[in-house]
Amino acid sequence: MGKIIAVANQKGGVGKTTTAINLASALALLKQNVLLIDCDPQGNTSSGLGIPNNAGTLYDVLVEKMAVEEVIKDTPLKTLKCIPSNPNLTAVEVEFISLPQREYYFLKYLSPLRGNYDFIFLDCPPSLSLITINALSAANSVLIPIQCEYYALEGLAQLLKTIKLVKQRSNPGLKIEGFLLTMFDRRNSLSFQIEAEVRKHFKDYTFKTVIPRNVRLSEAPSHGLPIFLYDDKCKGAEQYFQLAQELLDRQQRS
Amino acid sequence: MGKIIAVANQKGGVGKTTTAINLASALALLKQNVLLIDCDPQGNTSSGLGIPNNAGTLYDVLVEKMAVEEVIKDTPLKTLKCIPSNPNLTAVEVEFISLPQREYYFLKYLSPLRGNYDFIFLDCPPSLSLITINALSAANSVLIPIQCEYYALEGLAQLLKTIKLVKQRSNPGLKIEGFLLTMFDRRNSLSFQIEAEVRKHFKDYTFKTVIPRNVRLSEAPSHGLPIFLYDDKCKGAEQYFQLAQELLDRQQRS
Lengths: 254, 254
Ligand SMILES: Nc1ncnc2c1ncn2[C@@H]1O[C@H](COP(=O)(O)OP(=O)(O)OP(=O)(O)O)[C@@H](O)[C@H]1O
Ligand SMILES: Nc1ncnc2c1ncn2[C@@H]1O[C@H](COP(=O)(O)OP(=O)(O)OP(=O)(O)O)[C@@H](O)[C@H]1O
Ligand SMILES: [Mg+2]
Ligand SMILES: [Mg+2]
Known about the structure:
Two copies of one chain form a homodimer. By secondary structure, chain A is of the alpha/beta class. Chain A contains twelve helices and seven strands. Chain A has helices at 16-29, 44-48, 58-62, 90-95, 105-110, 130-138, 150-154, 156-169, 189-202, 215-219, 227-230, 235-253, and strands at residues 3-7, 34-38, 73-74, 80-83, 119-123, 141-147, 175-182. The first copy, chain A, has a seven-stranded mixed sheet with strand order 3-4-2-5-1-6-7, with helices on both faces. In chain A, β3 (73-74) and β4 (80-83) form a beta hairpin. In chain A, α1 crosses α12. Chain A is globular and about 50 Å long. At the A-B interface, α2, α4, α7 and α10 of A face α2, α4, α7 and α10 of B. One adenosine-5'-triphosphate sits between chains A (12-18, 40, 44, 126, 182-183, 211, 213-215, 217-218, 221, 236) and B (11-13, 126, 149, 151).
């Protein structure tokens, strides 16, 4: 049975989309069947993989009752598929808010897919709104990117509180997959301070793999490619590949 | 009469908070009376200026009907004041959604303050939700930070659409103050491409001043200080000071 992993952090620009695309791609290269779902109305996951998002998106499944198989798109990698999103998805925030069972919509439409994939990743928007709550309610675990900067630590308490609430109300099985340090810059002492702080607080929950700040990672999306097809020898590609192996090792051990 | 400027962009991590704090601070150093309002439940503006946000926040004015004068706090700069926020503010998204006049709450409580300040800045969260709509409905103009990276251009069409809707529905006087290029990195050709693209599309609306990527800007908030009190000789301080002068020149000309 496939594992659903939400990639979430309400702090903006911490590397959620970059992690979702490149971790999912690395796992696909390691012969896993992977589905990546763009749950952000900004549609960065869709464009970062060069996938058209003008029609047949997550919104169409949730609101227009389109069959989910119809919106699963191919990507540049054979065993990686993607469900795109566009700004229409914002409507979910307003339309679902007064519905009963409002946090279970993702679960309802996505859990039937679990049998077809080894991993399903949900790239979340930078907020703790209903879309993110839906993603957390449907997920088996949540992967939390933490940018190695001061503001990035601030929001963690709130995120962990929200995860706890979701566990109590709608998804008792929700676990923390891990905290991932991103945009680590060896020239900046703040990076070392943040790493020390995170490893102290979250010990075994922090991935050993750290993602460095690497300009190639920010260039790849403008070509619609995961890092492995843009520059597979750069430090960013190496580390996301190592992260995928670490994640697989963890699954086998648990 | 004071001018209310919203600092907004739903893309996360583009420098909204860093711009709000340092532009407001530079204007205060240029003898302007400035109020900076943290409209983001993350509370980064509050902590970036070292202001306690556990009690007496924007939420207390909007929901607990506290008098706005009671939540105006001092900052390290004499003519800069701040209204803090904390995660309580998220409640506004849910509680206000079904109220009539839901987009006019900020205007109702903040416009009486305009007589006391030359500028009032509203630091917005990374979304186009009700909090941001409220900020846009109360503002005279909106300043849009654009990070010099690929994903940063994607969300602009949606943001401009939202601004247009707010102009039609609730705030016909809303103008664009300008587009500000942030985290410009001379070593990265993408920065030059993004700058060329933005200046081509938005011509006179793009500030001449460009904010470089400068590690001192990301260190200052961990000391609770604006850049001018942390390292006033660095490139980040120079450019934010120049931005303040450019903004003032524009006001005098228009
Ligand atoms: N390790 C890295 N090194 C260099 N640049 C990076 C790295 N990771 C991400 N970036 C760049 O930083 C910016 C923010 O990353 P990204 O968009 O993945 O964050 P996000 O958390 O998904 O943002 P949002 O909160 O808006 O969804 C992007 O321009 C991206 O290309
Ligand atoms: N010019 C710059 N040079 C280097 N670092 C910067 C610069 N501007 C901002 N930063 C850092 O980048 C990160 C994102 O900036 P900031 O938090 O101001 O963005 P934001 O748009 O307010 O984010 P959010 O969408 O979460 O509200 C912060 O860690 C900040 O310290
Ligand atoms: Mg993203
Ligand atoms: Mg901010």
